[in-house]
Design brief:
The structure is a single chain. It is built from 17 helices and 14 strands. It has 491 residues and is of the alpha+beta class. The chain has two domains: 280 residues, Beta Barrel (Butyryl-CoA Dehydrogenase, subunit A, domain 2); 183 residues, Butyryl-CoA Dehydrogenase, subunit A, domain 3. The strands form four sheets. It has a six-stranded mixed β-sheet, with no helix packed on it. α5 runs antiparallel to α6 and α11 packs antiparallel against α16.
């Protein structure tokens, strides 16, 4: 079937009746539930956009010949890579980059897995076939995915097999001729339950050893599979209108604990089974992490542009754009944006075809960007908070403006340099939602831990960085200055 529309996305969720819990209750129709309705409508908008801009968002499936979402595309040229990125950013602009798990993120992962399917053959040809077939299936049915990577935070000082309750984490229970049985808990599925399927993959932030083989799994199953539960955290969509909460009312993706209660996974949906070595190497050796990082950096450029737009609008609204310290703060966001764009340009224009024929961005550029942005993002948000100052505290609601007795008072009293009170407050509510609301706080935390613990990521980055060339340069420099022979060796 061809790429789906927003209407079809919603219809699938209704029909699936995924097993979702929130605020202590099981959700009936998730598409109408106040905690999920806003983001589901935003997701539907993404799918509709594919048909509104088909030249940019769709391409012909190599298997069915029907239209498929271009974010599934296996790029063969730099032009393909750029075309896919332009579609990624088209989607990101609908939310100002605030939807971190829009479908393109995992579409990139599935594409890389399918294109490099022979990697999984190490454990048997069946796994390679499964990876390739799943990519074709996901692309040609426009499957939306959530995913889960990490084990519960029970005792991070110990490996999974050493835990007091070694069965709390998702693990292999049984193999049989039809498939496998798995049981346990996984974290942390963003958009859990409001997508078609869940992709289970191992985290590679902390490597697993052979004794962790029972926990070393990769598979994909429908979200309404028997025994599968999504336990969602408290929603930050408080049910207010879009004027009062312009971001949280539309883009609150949610995060869920995932419970697998003796869940059956058919063999054709299994990619890795009980092999810690393959799990440890999957993301890097298939280049999945490279293509996922390409999507993230592309999205974060749009997000930085959005933050810059808010900052500049706030400056202009209250006439502070001429002050030295204000310009300095705006420059900081601008420099971040241009640095991110430079990383992306280098990544794309230094791309090379990998051994599977996939045009793959320069990972060094993307790896630098994905390590840097989590550390810089809180500062960008802080700039907007400082610029807004007390204006982010005195922000009435739309209902206040609609009140006959007080509406005109606040409309006049909260006017700005170039905006009437109603328009200025609307702008400042946006600035508040991205900085001080529960949604904004979650965005900051989410970006900080996007790829895992940034300290551990930084250690890995340091360890893998090519350092000898720089140390050798210093040796050569010192050896060429004055008498290179040590004074202490002279007679």
């Amino acid at each position: 079937m061809p790429a789906k529309t927003g209407k079809e996305y919603i219809a699938r969720l209704k029909a699936a009746n995924n097993n979702i819990y929130i605020h202590g209750e099981r959700v009936g129709d998730v598409t109408e539930h106040p905690a999920f309705k806003g983001v589901i409508q935003s997701m539907a908008r993404l799918y509709d956009l594919q048909y509104e801009k088909p030249d940019k968002m769709l391409y012909q499936s190599p298997v069915t010949g029907e239209k498929a979402g271009i974010t599934f595309l296996q790029p063969k040229t730099i032009e393909d890579l750029i075309a896919r990125r332009e579609a990624i950013q088209e989607w990101a602009m609908t939310s100002g980059g605030m939807m971190g798990r829009s479908p393109d993120y995992l579409n990139a992962e599935v594409m890389a897995m399918g294109a490099s399917a022979s990697f999984f053959e190490e454990a048997g040809s069946m796994y390679a076939d499964n990876a390739k077939n799943y990519y074709d299936y996901a692309r040609d049915n426009d499957i939306s995915l959530t995913h889960t990577l990490i084990h519960p935070q029970v005792n991070r000082a110990k490996a999974q097999f050493e835990q007091k309750d070694a069965n709390v984490a998702l693990h292999l229970v049984e193999k049989n001729e039809k498939g496998i049985i798995v049981d346990g808990i996984r974290l942390l599925a963003t958009q859990g339950g409001i997508t078609d399927e869940i992709l289970v993959f191992p985290s590679t932030v902390k490597k697993a050893g052979e004794e962790d083989d029972p926990y070393s799994l990769a598979f994909a199953i429908p979200n309404n599979t028997e025994g599968l539960k999504f336990i969602s955290r408290e929603s930050f969509d408080t049910g207010r209108n879009e004027w009062d909460h312009p971001l949280s009312s539309r883009f609150e993706e949610g995060d869920a604990i995932v419970s697998f209660e003796n869940v059956f996974v058919p063999w054709e949906r299994v990619f890795v089974c009980g092999n810690s070595s393959i799990c440890n190497r999957t993301f890097r050796e298939t280049n999945a992490v490279v293509h996922m990082s390409h999507q993230v950096v592309s999205k974060n450029i749009v997000k930085t542009e959005f933050l810059l737009g808010i900052a500049l609008s706030v400056m202009d609204a209250i006439g502070i754009d001429g002050f030295q310290h204000v310009k300095d703060k705006g420059t900081e966001i601008m420099l971040t944006l241009e640095a991110m764009k430079s990383h992306l340009y280098r990544a794309e224009h230094n791309a090379k075809s990998d051994k599977w024929g996939t045009m793959t961005p320069d990972y060094a550029a993307l790896d630098a960007a994905r390590n840097w942005y989590p550390k810089i993002y809180p500062g960008l948000v802080e700039i907007i908070r400082v610029l807004g100052a007390s204006g982010l505290m005195g922000i009435p609601t739309q209902a206040d403006f609609e009140n006959d007795e007080i509406g005109q008072i606040i409309h006049r009293g909260l006017q700005g340099k170039n905006l009437e009170g109603y328009e200025r407050v609307q702008l400042f509510r946006l600035a508040w939602d991205v900085t001080m609301s529960a949604f904004g706080s979650r965005q900051m935390h989410y970006e900080y831990y996007f790829f895992g613990d940034p300290i551990r990521m930084g250690m890995t980055y340091f360890d893998n960085y090519e350092k000898d060339v720089f140390k050798d340069r210093i040796k050569d420099f010192l050896g060429s200055t004055g008498n290179s022979k040590s004074l202490f060796t002279q007679v």
